Amino acid sequence: MSLEEIYTRFCNHPRISTDSRNIVPDSLFFALKGPNFNGNTYADEALEKGAAFAIVDEAEYVSGPKTLLVPDALSCLQKLARHHRRQCQATVIALTGSNGKTTTKELILSVLERSYRTQATQGNLNNHIGVALTLLGLQKQTEMMIVEMGANHQREIAFLCELAEPDFGYITNYGKAHLEGFGGIEGVIKGKSEMYDYLRATGKTIFFNADDPIQREKLQGYDKTIGFSTTDPAHTIIKDLGADPYVKLKVDGNLIETSLSGAYNFSNCAIAVLIGNYFNVPFPEIRMGIESYVPENNRSQLLEVGKLQVLLDAYNANPSSMAAALKHLSGLEQTKKIAILGDMFELGEDAAIEHQSIADLASSLDLESLILVGKAFSRTTTDAHQFESFEELADYLKSHPISGPATVLIKASRGMALERLQDHL
């Protein structure tokens, strides 16, 4: 069946399902495959549960007129997404980077939606399937679309750009994330820069952090750039007023006070200001958009737990974001500072070195106490309290409760689920 024929059906049934356990009524079900499943085997079940059509790529699973056969279901989903994006009039802003993608996306959304009909990636749907689903959710009346792109290997960002065909783009930073898939920090820089490569090749405009030497180097000689800086008058000046405990910034003498903790969130706020300015959002609306944003989902949250002030940043972690969070904690004034750090994943052969480096950094900072948890951190050489599992740490906290007042940083990769510690503090 042709793409145009599939698209006609999508226009009549503009919702997508990819999991037969959660069928959206009157949707198109795409029979995707994974290492341990074959979506084709669930096509009939999807139709029985209310899907309008099932798109399969194995002929033996065609059971009637509501089963549509294509060469490859995933490729069909992606091509359908790009085709739909081309039918819509929205300006697409693409976003990637090692740290801060989702927070930055939400800040930009909070600013732009005050002047435009705006959509953005839902949750963390930022891979080769998630970006396609994001684009297929694009409404015809939408004026601005913010598409978050994640990657853990080379050529992934390039592919996602070819899928979404962004008009603008921004890279939050280059950090030590997914080192295993990218092959080291140089691989990370090359992989994330595929977005700038695409935008340059297509003559599109690039937003950038002019204080980032890597971004400056990558964009040298390209004139379709719009940057922010804390010091360089060649770009929009946005002053960093610190983050104790919340990020504050100043633009043309105007103060913006946020609900975001961590100095590393300054650039996330600054790019939202820059993009709002570029698209002529009135400054009072830009300020309101940023000041009204409250972090959630274990990202840069500042919580009160009894007499403890908890910096909960346990959604994800890598050596770059871990170091930044520790330095922010150490720089806080007039507080007892405690760090509880969990393992960082997807570091490959660099895992032992990177965990030891973080343990050494934490030990060198002005901290009252350091607690490390996880198989990798438990093998580091340090004077810190070390636990191989969450359960061991939880048992320790029962007999050694943390006394306040104090500020406690909780940071780890998602798989550690350290947000559970809130019940043990």
Automatic annotation (TrEMBL):
The keyword Mitochondrion does not apply. InterPro entries: Mur-like_cat_sf, Mur_ligase_C, Mur_ligase_C_dom_sf, Mur_ligase_cen, Mur_ligase_N, MurCDEF_CellWall_CoF430Synth, MurE/MurF_N, UDP-N-AcMur_synth. It is found in: Cytoplasm. ATP binds at residues 97-103. Residues 299-398 form the Mur ligase C-terminal domain. Its main location: cytoplasm. One of its GO terms (molecular function) is ligase activity. Keywords: ATP-binding, Cell cycle, Cell division, Cell shape, Cell wall biogenesis/degradation, Cytoplasm, Ligase, Nucleotide-binding, Peptidoglycan synthesis. Coiled coil: none annotated. Pathway: Cell wall biogenesis; peptidoglycan biosynthesis. Residues 96-275 form the Mur ligase central domain. Its EC number is 6.3.2.10. Involved in cell wall formation. Catalyzes the final step in the synthesis of UDP-N-acetylmuramoyl-pentapeptide, the precursor of murein. This is UDP-N-acetylmuramoyl-tripeptide--D-alanyl-D-alanine ligase. It comes from Robiginitalea aurantiaca. The lineage of its organism: Bacteria, Pseudomonadati, Bacteroidota, Flavobacteriia, Flavobacteriales.
